[in-house]
Specification:
82 residues, disordered C terminus
């Protein structure tokens, strides 16, 4: 596969067929695919990298991570019954 450099977030969304490349990158990192995350980050252009950092610090991301944690707590509590 050829190297992909200096791509916008929109280009990455189309290439990887995802709605939001930033959410995809975070989920990749959470799943433990650190090399894939690193590659995705380095494929972004400078402005997209800044936008990604803004996304990480945004309320949307904090809300997303809170929902994920809430679901994990519920799942953990449900496993008690099974």
């Amino acid at each position: 596969m050829a190297k992909r450099n200096s791509k916008t977030a929109a280009q990455q969304c189309r290439y990887y067929e995802v709605d939001n490349i930033f959410v995809y990158m975070v989920e990749t990192y959470i799943n433990g695919n650190f090399e894939t995350f690193r590659r995705l980050y380095h494929e972004l252009n400078k402005d997209a990298r800044r936008d990604f950092m803004d996304f990480l610090l945004s309320k949307e991301f904090l809300h997303l991570s809170y929902e994920r944690q809430s679901l994990a707590d519920v799942g953990g509590n449900l496993s008690f019954f099974f």
